[in-house]
């Protein structure tokens, strides 16, 4: 009754099923790895955001590359803002997906070194891309700034092209090495996304707290792929039994028709 399994159609169907099972298992394993990676990153971010802020000099220095473990760490810095060398970062959006600029102001520490501080987002104000926007002034004199330590932005990590020939004091990426060459001063590696003091008049709009990656979605995908893998042999057995039943019914009907046929004269 199972000779039909040797037909071309069923051989192909069986081979496809045998290929699908390990493929789906591997896809489930890949999704589980993605879940573990995202969960680990979420934990790093959570630990960094809840850690007590430390002086920025303890974590970075000129030429330093901010590591994954240092990213989002709360830091403090004491010094003064240098608005004369302030720049804006083009094509940045706020929480409402409005396009504008990020304001990056050099912060001169007591020892003369410079820390790049991203003071937040401002709207473009309807100005053309060649016009320099109006930027609210930061506090004057010596102050203490608190923020989240961030790594230098690169095209490879962000996908943003570092365009050349931009208008004066406009940049595409926040990069301490590039700013050190422009300023002619020692600049601490990375930059700080300011969280305090809060600006007067709500501008610039401070950069929001980073959200968690949806690790649970990858976990659900992994379970889904493994359920699909388990369903393939079950479906194959169901199809085989259905094929056998259909063939048996067709054979029985043919036999009945043959018996019911009148005998030849």
TrEMBL record:
This is SURF1-like protein. The keyword Cell inner membrane does not apply. PROSITE patterns: SURF1 (PS50895). Pfam families: SURF1. One of its GO terms (cellular component) is plasma membrane. Belongs to the SURF1 family. The keyword Manganese does not apply. It is found in: Cell membrane; Membrane. The chain crosses the membrane at residues 219-239. It is a multi-pass membrane protein. It comes from the Bacteria.
């Amino acid at each position: 009754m199972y000779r039909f399994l040797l037909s071309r159609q069923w051989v192909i169907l069986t081979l496809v099923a045998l290929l699908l099972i390990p493929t789906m298992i591997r896809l489930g394993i890949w999704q589980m790895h993605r879940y573990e990676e995202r969960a680990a990153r979420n934990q790093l971010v959570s630990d960094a955001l809840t850690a007590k802020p430390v002086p920025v000099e303890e974590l970075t220095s000129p030429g330093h590359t901010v590591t994954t473990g240092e990213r989002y760490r709360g830091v403090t810095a004491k010094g003064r803002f240098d608005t004369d060398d302030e720049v804006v970062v083009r094509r940045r959006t706020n929480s409402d997906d409005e396009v504008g600029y990020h304001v990056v102001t050099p912060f001169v520490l007591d020892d003369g070194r410079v820390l790049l501080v991203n003071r937040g987002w401002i709207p473009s104000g309807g100005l053309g891309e060649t016009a320099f926007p109006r930027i609210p002034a930061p506090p004057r004199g010596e102050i203490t700034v608190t923020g989240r330590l961030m790594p230098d932005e690169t095209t490879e990590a962000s996908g943003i092209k570092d365009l050349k020939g931009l208008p004066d004091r406009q940049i595409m990426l926040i990069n301490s090495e590039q700013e050190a060459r422009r300023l002619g001063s020692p600049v601490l590696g990375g930059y700080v996304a300011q969280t305090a003091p809060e600006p007067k008049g709500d501008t610039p709009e401070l950069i929001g707290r980073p959200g968690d990656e949806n690790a649970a979605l990858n976990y659900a995908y992994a379970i889904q792929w493994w359920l699909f893998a388990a369903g393939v042999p079950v479906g194959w057995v169901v199809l085989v039994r259905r094929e056998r039943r259909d063939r048996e019914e067709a054979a029985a009907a043919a036999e009945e028709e043959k018996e019911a046929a009148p005998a030849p004269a």
